[in-house]
Amino acid sequence: MLKDFSKLETFLIVVRERGFSKASSKLGVSQPAVTQQIKYLEKYLDTKLIERKEWY
C-alpha cells in the first residue's frame, strides 16, 4: 500500500514541468532523487509512467 503521497506529488510535478530537471528544481531536490521516486512508483504500479528519451 502506498502511504507516502510525496511520490505522487513528484510525479505530478514532473508531468506539469515536462521534465525531471525542472521538477527537481521546483521541488528543491536532486534530479536523481526525482528519478528514484518515479522508478519507485513505476515498480509499485508495475507500469511505465514516464517515457524517457535517450541522449547520445
User: What would the principal axes of the Cα set say about the shape?
Assistant: globular
Question: What's the β-strand tally?
Answer: 0
Total helical elements: 3
State the end-to-end distance.
Answer: 38 Å
Amount of beta strand: under 5%
Structural class: mainly alpha
Order of helices and strands: HHH
User: For this entry, what is the oligomeric state of its chains?
Assistant: single chain
Uncertain residue ranges:
none
Largest sheet: none
How large is the radius of gyration? 11 Å
Helix fraction by DSSP (H/I, runs of at least 4): 55-70%
Domain count: 1
Q: Could you please describe the fold and organization of this structure?
A:
The chain has 56 residues and is an all-alpha fold. The protein has one domain (6-45). The protein is built from 3 helices and no strands. It has helices at residues 6-17, 20-27, 31-45. α1 packs across α3 and α2 (20-27) crosses α3 (31-45). The longest helix has 15 residues, at 31-45. The chain is globular and about 35 Å long. The N and C termini lie far apart (38 Å). The model has no long low-confidence stretch (mean pLDDT 92).
Which features would summarize this protein structure in a list?
single chain, mainly alpha, globular
Outline the secondary-structure elements:
Elements: H1 6-17, H2 20-27, H3 31-45
Helix pairs in contact: 1-2, 1-3, 2-3
In short:
Helices cover 62% and strands 0% of the residues. By secondary structure, it is mainly α.
